[in-house]
Amino acid sequence: MSSEQKMMAGPGKRSNTVLPAWWLVFLKEVTELWIGGKALALVFIYTVFLGVVTFVIASNGELRLTPPKEMVYEAIKNVITVSLLIGLIISADSLSGERERNTLEALLLTSASRRQIIVGKFLAAITVWPVAFVIAMPTVKLLSQGDAIFGPGILWGAIVGTVLVLGYVGLGMLVSYWSNSNRTSYFVSMGIYTLILIPAQLPGEAQTGVMGQLLQWMNPLAAVNQFLLNILVHSFNFSEHIVWLEAPVAYAILILGILFMYAAPGLRLEEGRGSRLWIRFSRAIGLGMIVTAIFIIGTSPALALQTWTDPDQPVQISVNMEAKTVKASDSIFFDTVVTNTAAEPSPMILVAMNIINLEHEGEAIDPEDWSPERTQSIDSLAAGQSATLSWRVNAILDGEVLIYMVAIPQPEGQHVISHPIASRGIHLTVTPFTKLSPMGVLPVAMGGPLLLLLIIYFVSLSRNQNVDMGGSL
Amino acid sequence: MVQRKGPNVLSSNEILVAQDLRKSYGQRLALQGLTFTLHAGRVLGFLGPNGAGKTTSIRILTTMMKPDAGHFVVDGIKSKHAEQIRRKIGVLPENLGFPRQMTAFEYLLYFGQLYGQTAADTTAIALKLLNDVGLHQRRNSLIGSYSHGMKQRLGIARALINDPLVVFLDEPTLGLDPRGQQELLELIKNMSRERGAGVVLCSHMLSEIESVCDDVVILSAGQMVARGTVAEVIDRTQQNIVMRNGLRVQVPTTYLARAIQILRVIPSIMKVSPIGAMEGWLRLEIIEPGHGNAEVGYQINNGILSALIRAKIPILNFEVEGGRLQDVFMHLTEEAIT
């Protein structure tokens, strides 16, 4: 039944009611977004992305024995991050797109208030968030592996995600409000998104210290990630870590305040207030943000980790393996021989295992994940005496790694130094682990996009039945 | 056409009164004192070359832009009450965009409800309007499948969905074929005649303004150079043009040489020359056509016609140069620029 037929079927309660303008704009925008519009296309891409991410998290989880809490945290973090991007793409088009398509004037010529128009468009733009979150629920459930973390994960994910989405969508609309073209609007919005995203993705080492913590607290996305990490992974008390939500909430209130109280009543056919000056200014901001972001990555202290050794010592250490190729999840076994080459007995010697990822500029791998014994000790060695220690390493992740052992003679007293001695490295080539459906995640990972395709098909079919698809007269 | 409620009369049946509207963009004066009155049931033509200030005027009068000075009143509502004024006006902007995924009926239903009407009321009005603009058969087609002409007609229907007292149409026939133009002009005439609405028609097509409009305002470089009924404006300007120019006469091409021979011997004609691009047309330059005395001018015209008739030369057309709106427009806009 077409909308006209529905209206003509009889003056029901709804058809005799004057509907508020924000609701009409909301309905129209939602229809445009979700029936043949960009929201459906973006959510489809999102489900594909979610499937891939879920598969990767599940694979890593099986290999690294990642606890369900961490997997749930990672999944929710990714869901929020991508949902924010979709919300921003939709909202950045909301006003500048209408200007570009010459459809805004007709809307502004009606007697509907500007604020109601903005409210309707805003509500339509945030509809993508609940949809994206609901789509993610089965995968989060799967990754939680029956752990009780699922409930809190969904609860806190929904709360903090909503706070962020409100702020981001409001921000996108503000940028769109001040832009005359979608190109400008997208450029500025994506610049801001990147600027906020990159610091939030940096490793923890980059965010230590008072300044690091402050920057993390000020960055809404990083703060939310930290909050989720503390609550979901470390199981900290909510009340002690609510401080991490202060910035995202303040940010959302500020953005929405500007949007609805200041900008909305002044919505007009031309962009914002400054026209060409604003366009140049906004482009400069976008470019500046991207350059700044690249600078932040390049100078991150987390990427500047280095090692130091001094080989000139009376204790020698050797290993009985040079290079080996194994598959991820395989175990290798080797021995180290520690020899006291000095003329006198050695103090107690500690032997520690170190693993370096050769593919990531020497990034250190925590041996705890790879081996049951991270360190072993030898009480003392007589002059010329040797001792053999056996080691086991589980190849967890694929790639090129170097394993080397360090012998550390125990210092003989306070204020006495000791020089660790490193062995030759074992070059381990770990080939990928292949498992078709880790944790049985594949049906969900692939099912989401397929289900959405079916929904798109039936929605289109239903729409086509209601309209006459004939060509122009 | 849908009958609407009568206007809140300002004085007699004035429904739009603009008083000394001014607007500038930086140093450039876009509008310098626009003053005019629109009466119910009349069509006002808004003329002017590119950059004359037409779009600025329409934007101000439709509340899309605020004037720097001056004011206007629509049906007794002052220009500062923009939202109330928008309830009283309907607008077809130039280059109006349409949502491709909506049907014409849905489109009108949406806009009708945005004006505060119920869905049931809007449905009835929308169906009537779709019928009036000839889109009833295609009301459930997606707008994306419409031709340009169909979109223009839908745009007019949208402009009428709130039963407006004043309708602004900015270049409504732009891009339409001759038949489409004619149908649209008929629609505009009916709009004012049957609905009693006042129509402000912006167009570059002088012939359509002349055929449809009752009144005309001519703008040039932001200044209003003429205002009044079409006949008044032509008449007022005509005398100046006649002083400088002359007459045009069209005869069958076989009589052209004979006509030139006859006309050249008439003392009041200074020069006779064929108009190259127009077959059978001759342009006559008149010596001292009355010095502003219309009566003398008429007698000269009659004398020329009598001479041709006596020589048994068929006269297909005869017109005083400057007697068309196009002549007036060219003269006035040229004068304002120089």
Would you write up a description of this structure?
The complex is a heterodimer of chains A (473) and B (338). Chain A has helices at 3-8, 21-34, 38-64, 68-93, 96-100, 104-108, 114-126, 128-144, 150-177, 182-201, 209-218, 220-233, 238-241, 246-263, 276-298, 367-370, 442-466; strands at residues 315-319, 323-327, 331-340, 349-357, 363-365, 375-378, 386-394, 399-409, 421-422, 426-431. By secondary structure, chain A is an alpha+beta fold. In chain A, a hairpin with a 5-residue loop joins strand 4 (349-357) and strand 5. Chain A is elongated. Chain B is of the alpha/beta class and 338 residues long. Chain B has helices spanning 54-61, 82-88, 104-114, 119-132, 148-160, 178-195, 206-212, 230-244, 256-264, 294-310, 325-337, and strands at 14-25, 28-39, 43-47, 69-74, 77-78, 89-92, 166-170, 198-202, 215-220, 223-229, 246-250, 269-274, 281-286, 317-320. The radius of gyration of chain B is 24 Å and the shape is elongated. The model of chain B is unreliable at 1-7 (pLDDT under 50). The A-B interface holds A 2-4, 7-8, 11, 14-19, 21, 24-25, 28, 31-32, 35-37, 98, 101-103, 105-113, 268-269, 466-473 and B 59, 62-65, 83-84, 86-87, 89, 91, 93, 95-99, 101-103, 105-106, 109-111, 113-120, 123, 127, 138-142, 145-147, 150, 158, 162.
